[in-house]
Inverse folding.
């Protein structure tokens, strides 16, 4: 995907009311969302990522954008994701990769399992930062 520019990222931050961490903004300015080849989060986990959402709508109709996904998962999903977690991507099974946006644990990456039991919030913290998460991804 073509890179996002800083103005586009600032607009998304303003509309979502968040400040994105620098390492995540850097990725958006290099490659603004898109699909990743088959991968797994090492060592030996079942976590992966199929798609990263874009900062703003892009030309590819199959790539979702941050704002529409945040609106859906915060307001319309049967089991909404907490407001301080920004959906930034998803895996093959429709589970969501989230970025923590509140001061507590800011920038950490969480995995949200959409079909978790009712007594479980479905959240698992999987990395301290976006950089750590992305560096730990390995091809299948």
């Amino acid at each position: 995907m073509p890179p996002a520019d800083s103005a586009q990222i600032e607009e998304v931050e303003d509309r979502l009311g968040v400040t994105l961490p620098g390492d995540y903004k850097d990725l958006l300015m290099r490659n603004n969302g898109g699909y990743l080849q088959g991968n797994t989060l090492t060592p030996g986990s079942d976590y992966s990522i199929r798609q990263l959402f874009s900062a703003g709508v892009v030309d590819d109709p199959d790539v979702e954008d941050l704002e529409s996904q945040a609106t859906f998962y915060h307001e319309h999903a049967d089991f909404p994701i907490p407001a301080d977690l920004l959906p930034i991507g998803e895996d093959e099974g429709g589970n969501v990769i989230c970025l923590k946006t509140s001061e507590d644990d800011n920038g950490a990456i969480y995995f949200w399992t959409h079909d978790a039991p009712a007594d479980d919030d479905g959240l698992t913290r999987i990395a301290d930062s976006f950089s750590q998460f992305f560096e730990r991804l390995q091809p299948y």
